[in-house]
Amino acid sequence: MNFEHAHLLWFALVLIPALIAFHWWAGRVRQRLIGQFIAARLLSSLTVGLSASRQRWRAGLVVGAVVACVLALARPQIGFSWEEARSRGLDIVVAIDTSRSMLATDVAPNRLRRAQLAALDLKRLARTDRLGLVAFAGSAFLQCPLTLDDEAFRQSVESLDVNIIPQGGTALSEAIAAAKGAFKKDNDNHRVLVIFTDGEDHDGTALEAAKAAGKDGFRIFTVGVGTAGGELLRTVDVSGRSEFVKDADGNAVKSRLNETLLKDMAQGTGGFFMLLSGASTMNVLYERGLAPLPKGEQASQRVQRPHERYQWLLAIALGLLLAEMLFPERGRPVRRAAGANGTTAVITLALLSFSALPLPATQELAKKEYADGNFPAAQTEYENLLLKKPGDARLHFNAGAAAYQATNYTAAIAHLNAALTNAPVDLQQRAYYNLGNTLYRMGDANDGFVEKQKHWEQALKHFQNSVALRTNDVDAVFNARYVGFKLAELREAQRLLALARQAKVRAEDAVRRRDYEMALRIMAPAMTNSIVAKEMQDYVQRLQQIHEINQPPKP
């Protein structure tokens, strides 16, 4: 197996411990927040069924899915197939001068090395083009035939030195002739020759050879390597000593760039001359001279096409995420019968339902009193049983149910609160539900706004707790919404009552002026709310009676 982007595997090695640390930290934070909102004595009962091992399995599934996604991004590849690949490009022969004059150091590090680096830059730019290499000095030969193989061309360029051609001097015409041999006669592609040289021509036939090549369809680009001022040539002997190159008369040889000859050679074939200076010379040469030329079809190649296998890992990631979604944190609870007879008594009220737990067979008397509607007696029997089992949450619950039916709301609240202690979750949910019922009834029976609002707010909180423990309890959801609506109605009534009292002050002013009709008009908007109307009813009735007495008799 290969990975197209193998560097991403290091990211996976960092990501796995980071995700594990994150889940550990998130679990700690969750436990701390739960401890802030839930009393310690209720925590174990509220979290009954939650499995720490299941939570760890779910976290592991998420981590596995993320790792699978990262591996998919790395593009795993298994196997390959061969495909025919055809490309379009140019055929370019690069000719590099390897005469001793290329050892001059007027261009760092020396002319030959600078020409080699420029040729490699050209290959980097001409990715879809075939390049060949000609080495020349006093003679020339094809060092590398036209090829798309970057490595073969690079090795051929790197192997060049001034000793590769034994015959000294510089023969540009020989380089042009060797380049012609690199092209097939039946190839209709543009024939491009790029010459890297200092322009010295010892046989004097370079210009004529270039013009003849231009007639044969060649386009020559010359790249001058060196400076017009030139540089004295030096060589290093076998002992490592540097010495000047001297001519037959014993004078040191100085090599200069022949820019004029190189310009004439290029312009005669439709190309141009460039001086090798700076880092962008090859970019300018390729963009202005080579890239605009029409590209021909290259020979087809058989290339390996790897088989992408990232789909497998994406499928694994999706499967793990789906498993995480369907894998619950809670185990399946074990249901136990609440009593020997397995029955459940449900008491339904006008607006809110109130439930009582199943009654064991040993509580037959309490059960009979409850079924006969003798709720005070049933409450007494349950409280007598609690003397023997004071910590029995079910007895407290049933005693609270009986006290509620007997309208003994204070005792009902005390027993239901006691039922919340050390009770299973289902019993806690029903106790919260019945506490909401009890407090709502207490508030409904109270005429004072403050006490009514206090009891209803507590009732709403208990209904919300009941819904939190069992979200599919439609009765608890309905009652929570209903009490919330009644609270909003109560707050609106308080606002309207304040306005009604202000209206009453204005109505009293009208009464002092004996304008009873105006007083009734002032009070009329306040009477639209039932709670306000109840408080202002006597006052408005007296106004109506006085107004009728003071009305003049009809003719």
The level-1 CATH class of the largest domain: Alpha Beta
Number of domains: 3
* Class of secondary structure makeup: alpha/beta
Side-by-side strand order of the widest sheet = 6-5-4-7-8-13
- The beta-strand count equals 17
Overall shape: elongated
Residue share in helix = 40-55%
Major sheet attributes = 6 strands, mixed
Question: Roughly how many Å is the radius of gyration?
Answer: 51 Å
CATH superfamily of the largest domain: von Willebrand factor, type A domain
Beginning-to-end CA distance, first to last residue: 113 Å
Detail the poorly predicted runs: 332-355
Quote the CATH topology of the largest domain. Answer: Rossmann fold
CATH architecture of the largest domain: 3-Layer(aba) Sandwich
> What is the oligomer described by this structure?
single chain
Q: What is the number of helices? A: 19
Mean pLDDT: 81
